[in-house]
Amino acid sequence: MEKKNIIEVHNLRKVFKVPKKSKDLTWIKKRLSWVYREWEEKVAVVDIDLEIKEGEILGYLGPNGAGKSTTIKMLTGILHPTLGEIKVFGNLDPVKDRNEYTQQIGVVFGQRSILAYDIPVKDSFRLFKAIYGLSEEFYQERVEYLVKMLGIEDFFERPYRMLSLGEKMRCELAASFLHKPKIVFLDEPTIGLDASAKIAIRKFLRKINREEGVTIMITTHDMDDIEELCSRIILIDEGIVAYEGSLTKFKATYSDWKRVSFYYKKVHDKDKLKKLRENLDVIEEIEHNITIKIPANDSLGKYLSQIVESVEIIDLTIQEPKLENIVAKIYENRKKGS
Length: 338
Ligand SMILES: Nc1ncnc2c1ncn2[C@@H]1O[C@H](COP(=O)(O)OP(=O)(O)OP(=O)(O)O)[C@@H](O)[C@H]1O
Ligand SMILES: [Mg+2]
Hints:
- The chain is an alpha/beta fold.
- It has 2 domains: 55-252, Rossmann fold (3-Layer(aba) Sandwich), CATH 3.40.50.300; 256-319, ACT-like. Chain A, domain 2 (Alpha-Beta Plaits), CATH 3.30.70.
- 37% of the residues lie in helices and 30% in strands.
- It contains 12 helices and 13 strands.
- It has helices at 27-31, 68-75, 98-102, 121-132, 136-150, 165-176, 195-212, 223-229, 247-254, 270-279, 300-310, 323-337, and strands at residues 5-19, 39-53, 57-61, 83-88, 105-109, 183-187, 215-219, 232-237, 240-246, 257-267, 281-286, 289-295, 311-319.
- A hairpin with a 2-residue loop joins strand 11 (281-286) and strand 12 (289-295).
- The longest helix is centred in the middle third of the chain and has 18 residues, at 195-212.
- The protein is globular, with a radius of gyration of 26 Å.
- The structure holds adenosine-5'-triphosphate and magnesium ion.
- Magnesium ion (MG) binds next to helix 2.
């Protein structure tokens, strides 16, 4: 069954005013730039349409400066859109219905904290308890659950400033899920974290998504986050949606080859094997191990039957290009194109 949309965005635009570059100013204006500044418009998000489905983990990708954080800030009601419409739960507007809306969402900005710097993390949580109007019973149970799931008991009573980056991030996540929100927005929640902290965070997100059906929108530059969490992605580039759809379709669309390695013992037909070598794009051959490259959209069967006729296969592996490389190539092509 098709899932319901929990967020619908139409023609969303954000224009910032930024100081004009000095090279675009006349010499007199340059000289006066400390008293007189000319401004120009920077369109960070260009009339985008988005849908976020209930209960999904949506990956929001794009190169630096693409407009990801700006979109998230508008979706969470922190920034006012210049134009366009955002409807959440069918009728709420993040800006106009701010109070009601914030009760139902959680937010983490990897680059900025929602927890107070100088006081124990636990006390910040108490503050959130009051802000969200949580009952003592709900709060106790929830904190116990989150503290355990994120493994933060050892430093939960320490001031935030005394924590390491990974410890801080786990506390931030716990805080953003405290009031059992229906939607959580995560803007680079794994930035700067080591491999084991990243794994712990992914595990937590998968679990809470499954157990509570919470909808999650995540931006990240770590493609392993995307591979392990998201089934659907949206890629934006210069404020425009460049791709929207499943991760599988994305890979199939943008990867141009896959690598097939096979290991054989016996040769059935020497001539066929020779011909095979000539016809295929062999990228490596070590003793009885041959690795070939085949076009991504070609059927594997065609190649397999040729291989099977020439040799007796013992082992075969198929490798697709890594998401990281596919995305890097898209970003590079864009730079060349602009
Ligand atoms: N407050 C602001 N005032 C002026 N320009 C801004 C402001 N915030 C963002 N921008 C500009 O808008 C564009 C999009 O920025 P945004 O922070 O949304 O990018 P991003 O996709 O989150 O990038 P990153 O991956 O680097 O975090 C950038 O060109 C940025 O310089
Ligand atoms: Mg950002």
